[in-house]
Structure to design on (342 residues):
């Protein structure tokens, strides 16, 4: 199972995605995340199974997400959306 | 300024530092041997990480021996096998992954429990460093526990292999803490807060969940101290096997040793 790993350098900073680990269970996922990403001094670190992450939307989806749909209705090309 | 230690206690502290340093040096090597060939890439990375921790700790502990008039370069590169003070379970490589996990679960934890007994030590150089060492050990026990519980949930064969590996080495790990009334006790001088059976009980309590997971109990029995060398904490008069010795001393790199 793939677990996504998140961490931050200090309290109050947003969590950022730092990588992922393969692990058969939560217990080993914690250990592997720590031993794989312990080179830097993190304030805290989290793992979450990739299949438990719920997508809200994705601008690259084949099926347009709500904001992309609205832009499409206004006649804007997907390629000009910018960042 | 702290009061100087009596000579017998000083020797006892020196021996204890060397026991910990040599054991960590060897344990790091045993972990490193699985940086290739562990059951999964993440386990190899974990072994690499734990090896680095142990080697860092060994180096720090060897450096403390300067206080005792030791030549640290000789200690690291010039000793014969019978002069090593490592726990004898580390004399040779772990033969299988369950054997490595058992060393991780019991030997690594025994070293941690010995360090914890030094937290409030009257010997300041150790007391000042022990917190950092223990902090870096946090995930070693978690790695062992996670693997034992994975074996426990696996096939009966895998669980039995894990149970066998734990059961085989437990007596030697328990004996390593030494007799209850050692010839030189380090408790009255406040070097350690406990020794002997008190530490055996701490270890047994710490690893009880692992033993239960594979259908065993971590029983504390009175060890057989016949032939036990209290300074080296071993019964075997020899030391690391020849291949291990050549590698930890860096025999192949002797020509590159610099002052």
């Amino acid at each position: 199972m793939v677990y996504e790993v998140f961490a931050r350098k200090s309290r109050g900073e947003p969590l950022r995605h730092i990588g992922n680990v393969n692990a058969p269970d939560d217990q080993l996922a914690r250990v592997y995340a720590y031993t794989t990403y312990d080179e830097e001094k993190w304030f805290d670190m989290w793992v979450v199974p990739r299949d438990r992450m719920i997508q809200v939307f994705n601008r690259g989806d084949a099926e347009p997400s709500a904001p992309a749909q609205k832009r499409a209705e206004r006649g804007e090309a997907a390629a000009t959306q910018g960042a | 300024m702290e009061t100087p230690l009596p000579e017998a206690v000083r020797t006892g502290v020196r021996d204890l530092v060397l026991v910990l340093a040599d054991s960590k040096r060897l344990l790091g090597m045993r972990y490193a041997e699985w940086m290739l060939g562990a059951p999964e890439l993440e386990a190899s990375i974990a072994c690499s990480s734990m090896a680095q921790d142990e080697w860092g700790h060994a180096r720090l502990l060897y450096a403390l021996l300067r206080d005792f008039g030791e030549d640290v370069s000789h200690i690291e590169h010039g000793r014969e096998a019978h002069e090593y003070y490592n726990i004898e379970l580390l004399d040779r490589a772990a033969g299988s992954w369950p054997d490595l996990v058992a060393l991780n679960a019991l030997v690594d934890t025994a070293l941690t429990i010995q360090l914890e007994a030094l937290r409030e030590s009257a010997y300041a150089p150790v007391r000042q460093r022990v917190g950092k060492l223990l902090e870096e050990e946090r995930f070693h026990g978690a790695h062992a526990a996670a693997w034992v519980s994975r074996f426990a949930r696996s096939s009966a064969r895998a669980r039995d292999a894990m149970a066998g590996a734990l059961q085989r080495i437990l007596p030697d790990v328990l004996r390593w803490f030494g007799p209850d009334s050692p010839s030189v006790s380090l408790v009255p001088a406040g070097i350690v807060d406990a020794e002997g059976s008190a530490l055996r009980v701490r270890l047994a309590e710490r690893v009880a969940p692992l033993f239960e997971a594979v259908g065993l109990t971590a029983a504390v029995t009175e060890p057989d101290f016949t032939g036990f060398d209290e300074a080296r904490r071993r019964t075997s008069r020899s030391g690391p096997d020849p291949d291990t010795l050549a590698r930890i001393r860096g025999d192949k790199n002797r020509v590159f040793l610099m002052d």
Residues 124-153 of chain B form the longest helix (30 residues). The helical segments of chain B are 7-32, 41-64, 72-77, 97-116, 124-153, 156-176, 197-213, 242-249. The mean pLDDT of chain B is 95. The two ends of chain B are 32 Å apart (CA to CA).
